[in-house]
Write a structure and sequence with these properties.
This protein is of the alpha+beta class and 398 residues long. It contains twelve helices and ten strands. The protein folds into three domains: 105 residues, Acyl-CoA dehydrogenase/oxidase, N-terminal domain (Butyryl-Coa Dehydrogenase, subunit A, domain 1); 114 residues, Butyryl-CoA Dehydrogenase, subunit A, domain 2, CATH 2.40.110.10; 145 residues, Butyryl-CoA Dehydrogenase, subunit A, domain 3 (Up-down Bundle), CATH 1.20.140. The two termini are 39 Å apart. The chain binds flavin-adenine dinucleotide.
């Protein structure tokens, strides 16, 4: 794939070309050790890619956003984006471990010094995994402010009751960020008050008030539903102030959008590379199928969509790093990359014809996997709702 050379007159600090080329190169090398057959087997067995996650951890890639004083590399978000993008561009998947990057911000910005000193160095070395993020519930879905899981203060503890769904990687994580209601919805001054975030040490509560049930899905995502039945956690698990949790989670959303967009962009490049290579090599009716506009143009169109989405993601990351408000850009990057990857995936399916359906080409697996980018962690519709209301000033739709 040619390197893009983004130019934004209004953003003179925008990188020209790819950020962190050395990291990208090293991630690509690491990923060579995890070819399609590795991911195919994990997919068939619905197994966690422990070896891959361990390799990333040992190389320090999952700790790049942790400040140096807590044992990480202290790099900005575009380093995290570079890593996730290269993982996906190489045909691998960051889904088993990406949450560590985007949940980190909540702990860093709002956690106490004691919480940071206790957990971050161990997360940096890989001794502990912070991979689980418990927000979504079966009844409230996208409407986070209607969540029903409660955490009630009882002396030096909180008692948690309720149910979460789609808490991914819970079986492979030691720590979890959990969002729960600490003040009833009808007793808060502002509708965004009353929710609190907890950094839960899952080792102490698994089987003791926390019951995890895997959900088998169309992709190998190691996702679960979790039942909380009088789960007792120390009051020191609370992050920041009680009742301000929704704001803390929102604070981390732009980082999450930018990082997930990078994964989608990596997948875009993988699909486009596979499709264009196959289109050059596959000969039918005496000529490469890529000589037909019906095959060539959709691939070129996918590249155009990918390139536009990538520029927006780079802009969002540059603004985030400059400390500028970037809700619009981060959301647009997530939206555009999610839509672009779905187009690229469908185009690769069409280009490979019948062989797209054969497991050994990995197209069908990646096609299934990349569909998530239009649904989670935020669906395309909800992003359009955000843009309609907050950017274009139209009435609130959610
Ligand atoms: C594999 C997987 C992993 C996940 N991992 C996690 C995780 O680790 N932690 C976690 O907390 N959550 C996780 N999620 C949850 C994910 O974030 C939600 O599925 C997603 O936010 C949508 O919520 P929902 O499924 O309840 O859909 P709903 O909220 O029921 O929405 C259904 C559809 O209706 C649309 N819709 C709803 N309201 C509106 C509106 N006002 N305007 C227009 N359209 C609307 C939505 O866009 C969506 O397309 C995961 C989900 C999946 C599938």
């Amino acid at each position: 794939m040619p390197d893009s050379a983004p130019l934004h007159a209004d953003m003179p600090s925008m990188p020209l070309g790819e950020t962190y080329p050395e990291i990208r190169e090293a991630v690509r090398k690491l990923c060579e050790g995890f070819p399609g057959e590795y991911w195919r087997k994990k997919d068939q067995e619905r197994a966690y890619p422990t070896e891959f996650v361990n390799a990333l951890t040992e190389a320090g890639y999952l700790a790049v956003l942790i400040p140096e004083e807590y044992g990480g590399s202290g790099l900005p978000i575009s380093a995290g984006s570079a890593i996730l993008e290269e993982i996906h561009k190489s045909g691998c998947s960051g889904a088993a471990c990406h949450a560590q990057m985007y949940t980190m911000g909540t702990v860093l910005r709002h956690g106490s010094e004691a919480q940071k000193r206790e957990y971050l160095p161990k997360i940096a070395t890989g001794e502990l995994r912070l991979q689980a993020f418990g927000v979504t519930e079966p009844t409230s879905g996208t409407d986070t402010l209607s969540l029903r899981t409660t955490a009630v203060r009882d002396g030096d503890e909180y008692v948690v009751n309720g149910q979460k769904v789609w808490t991914s990687r819970a079986e492979h994580s030691d720590l979890m960020l959990l969002l729960a209601r600490t003040t009833a919805k009808d007793k808060v001054a502002k509708r965004t008050d009353g929710l609190s975030v907890f950094l839960v040490d899952m080792r102490a509560v698994k089987g003791k008030g926390m019951e995890i049930k895997p959900i088998r899905t169309m992709i190998n995502h190691n996702t679960t539903e979790i039942f909380y039945d009088n789960m007792r956690i120390p009051a020191s698990s609370l992050i920041g102030e009680e009742g301000k949790g929704f704001r803390y989670i929102l604070d981390g959303m732009n980082a999450e959008r930018i990082l997930i967009a990078s994964e989608a962009l990596g997948d875009c490049q993988w699909f486009i590379e596979k499709a264009s290579t196959y289109a050059k090599e596959r000969v039918v009716f005496g000529r490469p199928i890529g000589a037909n506009q019906g095959i060539q143009f959709p691939i070129a169109e996918s590249y155009a969509h990918y390139s536009a989405a990538k520029l927006m993601a780079q802009k969002a990351a540059a603004m985030f790093e400059a400390g500028l408000p970037c809700g619009e850009q981060a959301n647009l990057a997530k939206y555009l990359s999610g839509e672009a990857v779905w187009k690229a995936a469908d185009c690769a399916m069409q280009t490979f014809g019948g062989f797209a359906f054969a497991e050994e080409y990995d197209i069908e697996r990646k096609f299934r996997e990349c569909r998530i980018f239009r649904t989670a962690p935020i669906s395309s519709n909800l992003i359009l709702g955000f843009v309609g209301e907050h950017v274009l000033g139209m009435p609130r739709s959610y």
